[in-house]
Recover the amino acids of this structure.
């Protein structure tokens, strides 16, 4: 059984600033609820890149793995496959669009 959703949010930051955080996996620890363990190969996001991390909940440590599937820098779009505990796999298509010079809209679906 699958579920498809596409939440959107507007943030008070330029689209370029938001994109710089998404396109650099080494910055993920600044905004996701996980500790990044490795990024292979290191560097900016690119197809085939593999990110391993862990998170803590209910007194346990849980593994998280992320595979960069595609990145479209000119369109500020990134597709990731995230594997979470309990057999949960999520395909994340993230797009960043400018609203104005100081606001970006982020879709995550």
């Amino acid at each position: 059984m699958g579920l498809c959703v596409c939440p959107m949010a507007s943030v008070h930051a330029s689209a370029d600033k938001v994109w710089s955080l998404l396109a650099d996996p080494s910055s993920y620890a600044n905004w996701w609820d996980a500790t990044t363990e490795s990024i292979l190969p290191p560097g900016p996001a690119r197809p085939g890149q593999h990110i391993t991390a862990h998170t803590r909940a209910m007194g346990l440590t849980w593994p998280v793995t992320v595979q960069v599937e595609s990145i479209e820098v000119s369109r500020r779009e990134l597709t990731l496959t995230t594997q979470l505990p309990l057999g949960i796999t999520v395909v994340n298509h993230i797009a960043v669009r400018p609203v104005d010079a100081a606001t970006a809209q982020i879709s995550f679906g």
In short: The mean pLDDT is 92.
